[in-house]
């Protein structure tokens, strides 16, 4: 019974987190929050969102050229960037290689493994973010995060 309750609560947390990533305001706040925790984490939020847009594009039955352009844009931005490091998200290099090998295969699943990896990584920060957010009025969240980022930058320079 206890295990079932735990699973139920975690699945509802997963659903809440997914909804948060799809909400522009919450996703932006969460992105700023995780940017303080690791260099590639904020890119992870953007990657997850772009893959969702890509999957929506696939399901909307638009032309192959548009789908291919979106694949190329995601790869050029996150998987094989001209800006070092080439891999701009926190996924294993094998996953990145697999995506590059399958980049010509259209369909909603090309980024599936990578998106799941990123989701699992970001999800670890969700409870901390919820706790942080619960102590602040919604209009103060970004201000507080900016202040923290400023402190972190000054520490790096100092």
From TrEMBL:
Domain RGS: 16-122
GO BP terms in the entry: regulation of signal transduction
Single Gene Ontology MF annotation: G-protein alpha-subunit binding
Record SUPFAM superfamilies: Regulator of G-protein signaling, RGS
SMART domains: RGS
Pfam family name, one: RGS
Protein known as: Regulator of G-protein signaling 22
Lineage start: Eukaryota, Metazoa, Chordata, Craniata, Vertebrata
CDD domains recorded: RGS_RGS22_4 (cd08725)
Any one GO cellular component localisation term in the record: nucleus
Coiled coil: none
InterPro entries cross-referenced by the UniProt entry: RGS (IPR016137), Rgs22 (IPR042651), RGS22_RGS_fourth (IPR048074), RGS_sf (IPR036305), RGS_subdomain_2 (IPR044926)
């Amino acid at each position: 019974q206890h295990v079932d309750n735990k699973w139920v609560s975690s699945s509802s947390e997963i659903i809440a987190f997914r909804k948060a990533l799809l909400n522009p305001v919450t996703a932006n706040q969460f992105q700023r929050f995780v940017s303080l925790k690791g260099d590639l984490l904020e890119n992870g939020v953007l990657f997850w969102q772009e893959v969702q847009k890509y999957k929506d594009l696939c399901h909307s039955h638009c032309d192959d050229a548009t789908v291919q352009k979106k694949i190329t844009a995601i790869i050029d931005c996150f998987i094989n960037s001209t800006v070092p490091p080439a891999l701009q998200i926190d996924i294993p290099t094998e996953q990145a290689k697999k995506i590059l090998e399958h980049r010509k295969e259209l369909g909603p699943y090309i980024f599936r493994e990578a998106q799941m990896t990123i989701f699992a990584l970001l999800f670890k920060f969700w409870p901390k973010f919820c706790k942080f957010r619960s102590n602040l009025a919604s209009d103060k969240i970004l201000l507080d995060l900016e202040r923290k980022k400023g402190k972190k930058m000054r520490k790096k320079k100092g």
